[in-house]
Write a structure and sequence with these properties.
Largest sheet of chain A: 10 strands, mixed
Order of helices and strands of chain A: EEEHEHEHHEEEEHEHEHHHEEEHEEH
Strand content of chain A: 25-35%
Oligomer: homodimer
Radius of gyration of chain A: 21 Å
CATH superfamily of the largest domain in chain A: L-amino peptidase D-ALA esterase/amidase
Number of strands of chain A: 16
Largest interface: A-B, 65 and 65 residues
Mean pLDDT of chain A: 93
Distance between the termini of chain A: 46 Å
CATH topology of the largest domain in chain A: L-amino peptidase D-ALA esterase/amidase
CATH architecture of the largest domain in chain A: 4-Layer Sandwich
Number of domains of chain A: 2
Helix content of chain A: 25-40%
């Protein structure tokens, strides 16, 4: 597997576009389209929030279709909690796009991100659909990646190539979302982070869903910016088979190679999101090892990654390990606190649940000045691991979110 | 029931003191003592955190004793995760105090609050014990209330009187804790908020424990400042029987009167803590109604009370109800999102899961300028209720906690 420059339109047969439709007050790009020249197997993961945005509802319904051709998405408006008019607005956008592309409406998926409870400006979107379609291009991936952003400070796209037998397939993607980030998504059930992944690999819908479930578990579902789960989280993967590899229809060697590449891409995209978390100055990686089972490891890693106190002291470049152990202990997971070790980078800070004499806070403080902090917690109770990603917590997060809708 | 001026030493037979022992670098008061002239029935609730501070461990063991006489507590150091030397230090403090008071060491309880992972300065404490004992006084409650504070900006104490038959009993208390506040305590099991309650009511230990369990459920266990559960949370109640009422030994009418007064006191103390949350400018009350059962109501109220996004927009005085519904939906409680109503104060903002046309954001914004904000969520799925308290989230919280230990 190699990393290549690219994004959602790097795999063969995919075209993309992004433009400004006037949804955002700022006038920045806010409407995107992703299109495959041929039918795709699709897999999707949606938020498990009880409040589901209208585009999530419609995409979930459309996932029952065998194949898909396009995804239309907007930033600047979540189209959530808008009642029946919200559902109708999302349906109109999908129908108009399907008509413009000449594809069945159930082959179109959709996603939205932005403020909750404001009417989607459907007329503005409708007016821009012809331009959106006409501008579709193989080099439109970056326009797409830019137009899905909200409070993000950088565009997030990447692509990889992996050899399956004699064929090289490409997987590329773009994502956004740096606030209201604590996804808990499940495939074909429910996932405001948005991520869009395309591949020219030939793979059955069933295997694509299995691959996506594996990929989100150790990536998007392990990031947290603020502990707030969105109503709009969505992750789509489209596979059009244009690479011409032998179709993956079982969990064979090619499935493993493809899925490992997809997992890598998803993990890197998830890290991009955490690194760009609202107000963030640092990426924080929390590895939990020695858990009795995977679920326990995930629970501890997720709990520590949402500790406001820990995230504030990381912002303050203060290696205060007390906040790590307090948060582990609050996870609800049963473990022997007298066995727990904690490391900051490679430096051991806690041994068997207590501080160690040789802990040199000033030395560790140097590690905290870097823009990526690694914390490892070894529960020493088993063999299972999990890694979560978050960011530090700065005054800027408060400022961004105190002023968001006004 | 009437509210009277007072605190931990207002009930008959209780004396208190607080002074500076040099545990805090600032030189502010940091060591307190509460003493009953006669033996007390005691009940306690401790943190459920897997990491338990040394004073929590020792107090938990001492709760097995039939009666208690005194509580010694310090601020400025949590004595947590200090290994065996931490346990030994806590034991030394208790033993020295017991000797100075001439009481059995198992009648002494203890609590600590402050930074985790630093040695308790036992010598400094030992040196101050004689002065601490000599200064015990019926008017020492306020000295006590001041010396237990850490990042708190105001002392928190109150007292009530309630008539049981022909006898008037007094219940008084003091508490502290405005960061690492998300208690989940259970009586005689595990509870850095600290609260100390005294009463001159005659009540059996068993009934006192039952009363305390009722009281913490709707008070301390329903507040959150930052979602971070402490290793040191402790709530003590001492009852010395000096009021001379007929001893409460069953859940009779007097039990109900006493417990209702205790619940009132605990709720008001919990509100004081939330209002003084680190960096807080507003108290936020979140009432959930219409839940299928109490556990669901508690789960939704607790989830909404920990939403960083909601707390930021309250700080920004921005009535963004989208963050309320997103957080309800993330609670994991099953309800029909299409039935949910949300009120800010008395103004309805959401009806049946969607915004309402008559919602006047500018009018509601005026409510958000007050220093107490009420949010009501009606799930319309049942008859159960719960109320949680939190505060808004300001840049000051980040500042306080980025600089805490350095």
């Amino acid at each position: 597997m190699i990393i290549v420059k690219g994004g959602v339109a790097t795999a063969k047969g995919f075209l993309a576009n992004g433009l400004a439709a006037g949804i955002k007050k700022s006038g920045r790009p806010d409407l995107v389209l992703l299109y495959s020249e041929g039918p795709c197997a699709a897999a999707a993961a949606f938020t498990t929030n009880s409040f589901q945005a209208s585009p999530v509802k419609i995409s979930r319904a459309h996932m029952a279709n065998a194949t898909h051709r396009a995804i239309i998405a907007n930033s600047g408006n979540a189209n959530c909690a808008n009642g029946k008019s919200g559902d109708r607005d999302a349906a109109i956008v999908v129908e108009r796009l399907a008509a413009a592309l000449g594809v069945g409406k159930r082959t179109v998926l959709t996603a939205s991100t932005g403020i909750i409870g404001h009417d989607l400006p459907v007329k503005k979107i409708e007016k821009k659909i012809p331009e959106l379609v006409l501008g579709l291009a193989a080099d439109g991936g970056t326009r797409f990646a830019k137009a899905i952003l909200t409070t993000d400070t950088v565009k997030k796209e990447m692509a990889v190539k992996v050899r399956l037998g004699k064929t090289v397939v490409t997987i590329g993607g773009a994502c956004k979302g740096v606030g209201m980030i604590h996804p808990e998504m499940t495939v074909s059930k429910h996932a405001t982070h948005l991520s869009f992944i395309t591949t020219d690999a030939a793979i059955s819908k069933k295997m694509l869903e299995a691959a996506l479930q594996e990929a989100i578990e150790d990536s998007f579902n392990m990031i947290s910016v603020d502990g707030d789960m969105s109503t709009n989280d969505t992750c789509f993967v489209l596979a059009n088979g244009y690479a011409g590899n032998g179709k993956i229809a079982s969990k064979n060697k090619d499935y493993r190679l493809f899925t490992d590449a997809l997992k890598f891409l998803a993990k890197e995209m998830a890290r991009m999101l955490a690194r760009d978390g609202e107000g963030a100055t640092k990426l924080v990686e929390i590895e939990v090892a020695g858990a009795k089972n995977k679920a326990d490891a995930v629970k501890v890693a997720r709990k520590v990654s949402t500790s406001n106190l820990l995230k504030c002291c990381i912002y303050g470049e203060d290696p205060n390990w007390g906040r790590v152990v307090a948060s582990c202990g609050a996870s609800g997971v049963a473990f022997d606190s007298g066995k727990v070790d904690v490391y900051f980078g490679d430096k051991k800070a806690v041994s068997n649940g207590g501080r160690i004499g040789s802990y040199d806070k000033e030395e560790v403080r140097k590690l905290f000045k870097k823009d990526e902090i690694r914390i490892k917690i070894d529960l020493k109770s088993g063999k299972h691991k999990a890694t979560a990603w978050t960011c530090d917590f700065s005054e800027k997060y408060v400022k961004i979110n105190a002023e968001y809708s006004t």
